[in-house]
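dumping the sequnces here before i forget
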Amino acid sequence: MAGNELRPMQYPVGIDPAALGEVERRVSPDEAPPLPPNARLAWIGKAVPRANGHAKVTGSALFTVDRKLPGMLHARLLRSPWPHARVLSLDLDAAARYPGVRAALPIHETVGRAVPLPPPGTSPSTPPARQVLYVGDIVAGVAAATPSAAEAALRLVHVEYQPLPFVADIEGARSGDAPHVFDGPVAGDSHAGGAGGDVPIAQQGNVRGPDRSGSRGNVREGFAQAEIVVEGEFRTQVQTHCCLETHAVVADWEADQLTVYMSTQYTVGVRDELARVFGLPLSRVRVVVDAMGGGFGSKSGAGNYVRAAVALSRQAKAPVRLVLDRREEQLDSGNRPATVQRVRVGARRDGSLSAVSVDSYGTAGVGIGAGVGNFAQSIYSCANFAIAQSDVFINAGPGSAMRGPGNTPGAFAFEQIIDELAERLAIDPLALRDRIDPSAVRRAERRIGAAHSGWSRRHAPGSDAGPVKRGRGVAQSFWGANVQTNSACEVRILRDGSVELLSSVQDIGTGIGTVLAQVVAEELGLRPGDIVVRIGDTDFPAGPPSYGSMTTASITPPARNASHQVLGKLFDAVASALGAAPENLVAVAGRIATADKSRSMSFREAATHLRTERISAVASRSDDYGGFARRFGDLASARNALGGVQFAEVSVDVHTGSVHVERIVAVHDCGRPMNPRQIESQVQGGVLMGLSYALYEERVLDRNTGHVLNADLEYYKIGRSRDVPEIEVIFLENYQGMSATDAYGIAEPANIATAPAIANAVYNAIGVRVRELPMTPAKILSALGRIPQRSGGQ
Amino acid sequence: MNRFEWTSAGAVAAAARLGPVTVAEAMATQSGAPGTAATVLKAGGIDLLDLMKEGLLTPRRIVNLRGIPELGRILEGADGSLRIGSLVTLAQIAEHPLVARRYRALAQAAGLPASPQIRNVATIGGNLLQRPHCWYFRSLHHHCLRKGGATCFAFSGENRYHAVFAHEGCAMVHPSTTAPALVALGARIELLRRDGSRRMVALESLFLTPEEDIRRENDLKPGEILAAIILPPMKPGVRSWYERQGEQDSFDWPVAEVAVVVKLDSPGICREAAVILGAAAPVPYRAKAAESALIGKPSSAGNARDAARAAVAGADPLSGNGYKLPVFEALVARAILHAANQG
Ligand SMILES: Cc1cc2nc3c(=O)[nH]c(=O)nc-3n(C[C@H](O)[C@H](O)[C@H](O)COP(=O)(O)OP(=O)(O)OC[C@H]3O[C@@H](n4cnc5c(N)ncnc54)[C@H](O)[C@@H]3O)c2cc1C
Ligand code: SF4
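..and the predicted 3d for all of it:
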């Protein structure tokens, strides 16, 4: 193999087809050669059908809930019926004696929530008195031969609770005399994607904050320079992930190996977490997932329930299956925190922004990170920016990352303020963004979207006659183009010509397996169906997580490089048979040929020339050729963030307050698009999730009893068949010459712009702004001032 | 879900002999723990199984009525009346040509609840007799008045979907969507007793307000089986309409619904009117003021608006459901005009 000196190579750059040029990058000789634009490729960028689509629609796909191991037990968890209580005693004896029960354990796992910092002077090992902090907090677990035995045994667990004062609403929790969720200062990871996290931050009662990191310039001066100031207070609700496949695990603790089958977004992360928690070497823990029914951020780590299942399996010495039911899923599998945001923007007459300030508080229940992300901070040019974000603790299940964490609620507020600013300046919302948005990609997206959506037909706010009013609105997306560099895969060629790709990366429903087959097929001159893709298993090279919209960006470049490298070995093996130097061979259309095509043999025949049964190459994610903007350990952000612009068309009945979304035009970018069909499906999913967030979904927590009143899919309302609008998905080919595939992500940007686009369209329809989610008939009628004041009666 | 015995009844009398009690009776206890001795009836089972899955109902025995053919038919009477067996599904009613022609509001009401899957299974009898969907009522952890407990959680709690009328003591809304249409159309019901005798009552009089009995939504007696719903022959000039508004268009409950029946004479003057609101009160709620506002007047947009205003005039919304009033007002006006303008 050649030395390690970097070689200059020419890469396509620009937005295809309008602005294609070339850029020179200096890359390692291990990198596959520059990939031409999609139009000149056989498989990459083509609408290849999802490899496991048939298996999924016919029911043969293997989900975690379908795993059956010999001797497998069934576990159930006992959960707190109290929003806040001290556990005075816990008696598992009767449950443990119930026929069929093989393990019964107290469970006190606290991942995902804030944890009290030990008061100064005490040893951190002092065990804290057991308290449950929300309805649904896990107290104990049992594993039994049948689900009904586990269920029955659970009823025999005797727990003595001492109920404590609790608080279940954000305003109540902020008041001075509110009961404290935590007795003292706490810390913890910021799972939900907002501010906070491990940084030491002041805490007063239930309020932790404000965190001002991200501020820049001087907003006081900025507002003084402003010729126009717009401001508003916006509220967003708690949204839950509602994965169709609830959280599920089969944990199998054996003498020398822990194997965990699990519905997860990050096999390697879970393996590392379990190895740490149970004191096992990484080599003795294996995490496996095949088909998966959604995660959206809620299945990023092992979580408390998996730890419980592993502990039960260890005690029972048998595999243990634990599947959350829908109620548990709604109470205790994470959620998108609620926020209250005061947003203020100062601008000059020409539209340029002189100051932006965001003051937010939110609640992730007993978790940390109910912030509003980096949307207002990053999307538009403005020298002066101030942010103050606080977490408010309440007695409710902890939040977690959820599709576009932080930025999704952040965009709902900020894109409405920008819309309002445009109106005050009497300029078109698109023209204002042309003025303040530095992104060339979004500029192109605005232009395309405006043409496709019929933007020029947008009328003045509230100008339709009659009770049903139509409106159009636009909003933009901002999300980092993330990459994980700890991301590898192996490509093998076997002597019979078969080809395998192996990586722990998991297909959570996005179709990454199909994309990997396309990449390998492209490089080896085969068809995607020829490639056996083995993924979702930590026995394979460690792949990336499937969150942060980083999977494709992280794993397709190593897949292509590994293919390129293993092909080089195949060329070495057949060079003499073809009478050519290895570097003069090419792989096309199922054949290995000399560059001039004068001599060739089939790929299969070429493989018979291998000296060993199989050859292989392992590659990991190299840095972006042009460098990263930032990196923290394994995680990096690409130089250019992801864009996305969405146009909504709605009709609003001002007599009944009902909103119908008729059409969404979603224009997006993801670097080089790898599979248009799957991208379209991702964007549709993001739009539907955003629409559902905009109009329907809300976790309803009873402030008097601390119970979630709609821990089901009946009164927790999620968009359903007749709520689906026409969705037109358009995406750019945005070449940047950054990696062997030049691909980035799409999942989160597709969700961020939808709710504000709908809100802006609602404003355009009725001429009144709705600043609170979800925009139900009640909120619309209230904004319109059509709800009569109450006369009397409670 | 608890273990239970399963019996399939082949005839009404056989079912009655098994000594079924009403689900309300089986559920109402002092302690909050449901009793386990009861025999209960199952039609489509949508509501029954829901209650059992939540642990709110733990019967000893379930008697399945689905195998009783006589309860599953729609028959036209010689006098032009229509007899709908209690086990006829909502989907069958919505698709029945005679229902659609003569009793339009019922066809509309039966065609909209929940989802097609549910309507294919849900029976008209079960729909009328299903228990409330108040989320406190449906929670094992809230032992409310209607379940034999000591408080109602709705008045000071989350009541966006609760009643705006006649909610003395309990603010649940009657869950049946077909009930307002049937009451507006003047339906009667036939009940079979354990001893084989029958009783006929106006459907409207079956429903109980919380003041009459807070633990039961209807006056079905233990052992009684709902056999049929009988719709009277339609007089000339009578037409009907049903309107509903939910937060979503599929698989959702209405936040407001209304069934209107009007009888117009040949110059188009309204001679009789029924305006029944659903999702409004613990019973299908007759908006008397709206009815009187219509009678004697020609059908016009202005008169419909006046009647709609009258319909909500006496409402008493709770802390979180005042939005229902403008919705009701809009729906009542629309339903009146649609009903009047039908050919
Ligand atoms: C998401 C969702 C949305 C819904 N939306 C609506 C809606 O908008 N409007 C609406 O009306 N409903 C709605 N429903 C409820 C559904 O329509 C009812 O659950 C269904 O109609 C009940 O009918 P069933 O035949 O399944 O009754 P079952 O569950 O079998 O019985 C219900 C009750 O009636 C009793 N019973 C049944 N038949 C007889 C009989 N012949 N004699 C004596 N007692 C009897 C049973 O003992 C039981 O107590 C919704 C349900 C869901 C899940
Ligand atoms: S409204 Fe009625 S059913 Fe609901 S909590 Fe109150 S008493 Fe119970």
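Residues A 714; B 23, 40-48, 65, 86, 113-114, 118, 121-123, 125-127, 129-130, 175-177, 225-226, 251, 253-254 surround flavin-adenine dinucleotide (ligand 1) (CB under 6 Å).
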